[in-house]
């Protein structure tokens, strides 16, 4: 039997939702390796984060503290997570494959002399151990891998594991002082320029409306995409092409190297459907494509395709949805 | 200023690759190869940094069989100064082995900056830069969107993260990994390609770098295809679409 530990993530003092998806993945892994799971929190005065992790069934929460953790840096946080893993006795480490998870987790793996499988979408028992399923070649290939080192590190794709729900019960919190040598950390967090929005976050919205080159001009995001997104209380996504053109912030890019989303409803407006874009949204439950080119590859993954000029169809769709919901 | 970059040979990201019938390998027949787009951005950034600082050297490393030489040559044609090919069976490499070999090269070459692509578009692992930084005990800035040099001593790096753009500052030596919009790589012209043939080029083996490729930490068990989505339908009007979304898909 082996123990699992989840590396929790927080932002502005609050737990990041993707940690709950990582907890589900850890529970699935624990179902195979059986030793129970704990959670690691690294931060400065992070008590509120630990408090919000009560009730998920962790046998312990390790809260690793140090003033160096006030602003997030991969170099310092990796040391903090390392201390938590050591305290826990875990040999399986799970983190969500968010920007922070991708940034920090390999450093934790290096400190543990552990192999890491990135962006895992499923976890299976295999040959007395564990196998991890992960997309490769922008999701055109699904690989199954195993990790041979004594400790195994995994980052998981949040969209492939349901968010864990709090079911009650107490997880005792152990606070550990990390004792970071601040002079050894040659990087510092300066700030975050957040794209502030009242809309749901792209990574976990129930509905996403994405715009591509077919929109023809930057202002059509506001004129055409936003009203449709508003009617659905949807997040807004974008193809790489329009992000490159500056029509949408980079943060809106859906794709292999942008965000991977899997909402209940994904509407692609004027997006041709390059392999790299599909990699980021083909896990969506229902996909709608509106494009005047009947040969656009997007129609191969769409559940419903409308071959029509989006300048006519999208505003019509917006009005029809508003009417249907009224 | 000395900068180390990699130039990984990968399948053209517009080609669709498939597994072999038994799932043990990838079928590379009829597939084109080129430099990993993120590596190309890394090479470009390194050359620009050296141009900005006014003096320095860009060393480009590739790992694989002889064919990987063309990616090294391409980087040299773009303006890198010296190339290194680690000749090995690429199929045996995992992220950790690559990182360890690059770390050994860094120990010999002592670069001020390592610039890598954030991920290779075949493996999509997004680990090597971060592993290297930890093994070397260096700071890192991944998913770089902009690098603002502070002389030749350090940099402010803007990074693409969830929710926006994060700024970190770091001192050299450090590892930076590139995101898509960091720069637009230059085209190489025939005179540059000819000049590249005369630039220093070394080959070495994993054993020279103290790494054993026969015990990888991460091993692929099989390659498969993703499950197909059920075929969709073309609808003839917005009205039909809304009807289906409400009553068939039940997403409204």
Task: Explain this structure.
The complex is a heterodimer of chains A (326) and B (252). Chain A is an alpha/beta fold. Chain A has 2 domains: 2-184, Rossmann fold (3-Layer(aba) Sandwich); 202-325, 3-Layer(aba) Sandwich (Rossmann fold). Chain A contains 8 helices and 18 strands. Chain A has helices spanning 18-33, 47-51, 74-88, 99-111, 219-232, 240-244, 275-281, 310-325, and strands at 2-7, 10-11, 14-15, 34-43, 61-65, 92-96, 115-120, 122-126, 129-136, 141-147, 152-156, 173-177, 187-194, 207-211, 235-238, 265-269, 286-290, 304-306. In chain A, helix 3 (74-88) packs across helix 4 and helix 5 packs parallel to helix 8 (310-325). The model of chain A has no long low-confidence stretch (mean pLDDT 96). A 9-stranded mixed β-sheet of chain B has the order 11-10-9-12-8-1-6-7-13, sandwiched between helices. In chain B, 27% of the residues lie in helices and 32% in strands. In chain B, 51% of the residues are buried. In chain B, helix 2 crosses helix 5 (190-196). Chain B is globular and about 65 Å long. Chain B has a single domain (2-247), classed as 3-Layer(aba) Sandwich (Rossmann fold). Chain B is built from 6 helices and 15 strands. Chain B has helices at residues 37-53, 69-78, 95-109, 128-136, 190-196, 238-247, and strands spanning 2-6, 9-11, 18-19, 26-27, 33-35, 57-64, 82-87, 113-117, 140-150, 154-161, 164-171, 174-178, 201-204, 218-224, 233-235. With 252 residues, chain B is of the alpha/beta class. At the A-B interface, helix 3, helix 4, strand 7, strand 9 and strand 10 of A face strand 3, helix 3, helix 4, strand 9 and strand 10 of B.
Order of helices and strands of chain B: EEEEEHEHEHEHEEEEHEEEH
Kindly report the average pLDDT value of chain A.
96
Number of strand elements of chain B: 15
Estimated radius of gyration of chain A: 21 Å
CATH class of chain B: Alpha Beta
Strand proportion of chain B: 25-35%
Structural class of chain A: alpha/beta
Helix percentage of chain A: 25-40%
Oligomer: heterodimer
SS element count, helices of chain A: 8
